[in-house]
Specification:
With 233 residues, this protein is mostly helical. 80% of the residues lie in helices and 0% in strands.
Length: 233
Amino acid sequence: MNAFLVLTRKEFSAALLSPIAYTIAAVFLLVLGYTFSLTLFATKVANLNYIFHQMYVLSILLVPVLTMRAVAEERRNDTLELLLSAPVAEVWMVLSKFAATWAVMLAIYALSGVYALVLAWVGEPDWGPILIGYAAMALLSALLVSVGLLASSLTENQVIAAALSLGAFLMLWFADSVAPMLPAVLEPVALNLSLLAHFKPLVSGSVFLSDAMYFISLTLCALWLASRQLADR
């Protein structure tokens, strides 16, 4: 556990020293602020449902940029072998990178909380769906970061890692769209793998254990695969 805390602190400090996190935060908040302003003046409705869907799209597009360096850069700089030779299990290395990157995403989401405060200033929002929506974003970002780390563990090229993770996100996003084109036996599998199908109920305020378990189980699976990828080196 001490090794995990030390590694997480190191990874988080490295993220704070990198301009990538700040660039992603700036793009995320600027695009989100523009959408929020337009929608608020157009609808005059005190809810963030549309903002959460915008955050969903932006996260899918931006998380690959944040995770592409996680392991791929270690491979390219020949520091991965040094890390693997340390008396620390591979799972702690993966979990530390995951925790640090996930913390960056959660911090960006926390900054977007200013829009909820604006709603409270101009109206009387229902805080229940807003809190559930942010919980859904936390689960979504955990899944995206874990898959991004898995993609980064497969290659030393950062661009390829970003492309692999983005491709995986899009496949999960549109899984329900291709379900009717699959054989009948595979159609339920595609429907159950749909990212949007599990995200929409949560962000709309409808909490189902199956939707939460979808994000948790896929996150754990991706982290396990990433740790096995490092262990097999």
